Amino acid sequence: MIHPLADEFLLVSGEHSFLLDAKVNARFGLCIETPETEYCQTVEPDDLVVVSAPEGGSIEPAIMLAEFVRTYHMPLIVLPKNHPGCRRFSYLVSVWPEIITSCSIQRGTHPEQHLVCSGDELAGITLKGLPGGIQISGLPGNIIPHYVKSRILTEFS
Question: Is a pLDDT exceeding 70 seen at residue 153?
Answer without folding.
Answer: no
